[in-house]
From TrEMBL:
S-adenosyl-L-methionine binds at G35, G36, H37, D57, F79, D100, H107. It is found in: Cytoplasm. It catalyses: cytidine(1402) in 16S rRNA + S-adenosyl-L-methionine = N(4)-methylcytidine(1402) in 16S rRNA + S-adenosyl-L-homocysteine + H(+). GO terms for cellular component: cytoplasm. Specifically methylates the N4 position of cytidine in position 1402 (C1402) of 16S rRNA. This is Ribosomal RNA small subunit methyltransferase H. It is an enzyme of class 2 (transferase).
Length: 306
C-alpha cells in the first residue's frame, strides 16, 4: 500500500483515536484517496488475530495506487454500496467506519479532471469517469431552473439564478461549455472581483456535487454504516462544507439526515448513536499551517447504541 506524498490526510490522529482501533477489529475506510488514513488504520491491525480493513474508492487512479497486504482489501466502488460489499465479503459486522468527504489533492491538482478553476482543462468533475455524466454534458442540456437550484443548494451562491441564466444563454448562443476556461469566461462578468475565487469555488463545488450525486451517496453511506456497524462500533465522518456537515450531524443525533426525530411509545428519542463529543473536532493551528486544505474540516463521531 502506498501513500502519495502530495496528499495529507486530515485530522489523522483524531480519527485514529475516535475509531478506538482494536488489533482484531474489522474496519472500513470509505474514502481511500491517497491511502493516508487507510495505512494508519492498517498499521494497528493484526492479521493473525483477524484484524482487517476494507477500503472503498470509485476512482481507478486511487485503486491502482493501493498495494496488497493480508490485512487489507481494496473495493473499487462508490461507498454508497457499503452494505452490499460487506455482505459480499461475508462480514457480519464492523467495528468502525471512517469517511473523509474531502476531494483528494490529486483531483484538484490534475487539470484534466476538471475539479479546480485554477487551471484550464476538460470540464469533467467525475470521480468515476466510467460511471457518470461529465459536468460539460450536464451543462449541455440541463434545465435553467434546475441549474439555478443546484447552484443555490449545493454552492450557496447568492447569484445562482443569474449564473444559470448566463450559462444557458451561452449554450443557446452556440458556445460549448466543455472546458474549465469556457465556464469561467461565461460567469466571471457576474462576479465581484473581490469575491471571484470564493464564488468560483462555490460554483465548482455545486457542479461537482451534482455530477457525482454526492448527497445521495452520503445518505446511503450513513444508512449503510448504521446497518453494518456492531453495537459499540464507531462512525467517524470528516466534512468540509455546511450541507454535508448538517446531514452528518442530523444523522448521528437522530438516524435521519433531515433531523426527523423517531420516538418510542413513551416519547423517548430512539437515538442510534451516542455522540463522542457534542461539538465537531477541528484541526488545530499547527495542522492548518502544515495542511491549509484542512482548514474547513470537521470530524463528527458516533458510537452505535445496542
Amino acid at each position: 500500500m502506498s501513500e502519495q506524498p502530495y496528499h495529507i490526510p486530515a485530522l489523522l490522529p483524531q480519527c485514529l483515536d475516535a475509531l478506538d482501533i482494536k488489533p482484531d477489529g474489522i474496519y472500513v475506510d470509505a474514502t481511500y484517496g491517497g491511502g493516508g488514513h487507510s495505512r494508519a488504520i492498517m498499521e494497528r491491525l493484526d492479521a493473525g488475530q483477524g484484524g482487517h480493513l476494507y477500503s472503498f474508492d470509485q476512482d481507478i487512479d486511487a485503486v491502482k495506487r493501493a498495494g496488497e497486504d493480508p490485512r487489507f482489501t481494496m473495493v473499487y466502488s462508490n461507498f454508497r454500496f457499503i452494505t452490499n460489499f460487506m455482505r459480499y465479503y461475508d462480514v457480519d459486522g464492523v467495528d468502525g467506519v471512517l469517511a473523509d468527504l474531502g476531494v483528494s489533492f490529486h483531483h484538484f491538482d490534475t487539470p484534466d479532471r476538471g475539479f479546480s478553476f485554477r487551471a484550464d482543462g476538460p470540464l469533467d468533475m467525475r470521480m468515476n469517469r466510467s460511471a457518470s455524466r461529465a459536468a460539460s454534458s450536464l451543462l449541455a442540456d440541463i434545465d435553467r431552473d434546475r441549474l439555478a437550484d443546484i447552484l443555490k443548494l449545493y454552492g450557496e451562491l447568492s447569484q445562482a439564478r443569474r449564473m444559470a441564466d448566463a450559462i444557458v444563454r451561452a449554450r443557446e448562443g452556440g458556445r460549448k461549455l466543455d472546458t474549465v476556461g469556457a465556464l469561467i469566461e461565461t460567469v466571471t462578468p457576474l462576479i465581484d472581483p473581490r469575491k471571484e475565487k470564493k464564488e468560483l469555488a462555490q460554483l465548482f463545488q455545486a457542479l461537482r456535487i451534482e455530477v457525482n450525486d454526492e448527497m445521495g451517496a452520503l445518505r446511503e453511506l450513513l444508512e449503510g454504516a448504521l446497518r453494518v456497524l456492531r453495537p459499540g462500533g464507531r462512525l467517524a465522518v470528516i466534512t468540509y462544507h455546511s450541507l454535508e456537515d448538517r446531514m452528518v450531524k442530523n444523522f448521528l443525533k437522530t438516524g435521519d439526515i433531515t433531523g426527523k426525530v423517531d420516538k418510542d411509545f413513551f416519547g423517548r428519542v430512539n437515538a442510534p448513536f451516542k455522540l463522542l463529543a457534542s461539538k465537531p473536532i477541528v484541526p488545530d493551528d499547527d495542522e492548518v499551517a502544515r495542511n491549509p486544505r484542512s482548514r474547513s474540516a470537521k470530524l463528527r463521531v458516533g458510537i452505535k447504541i445496542g
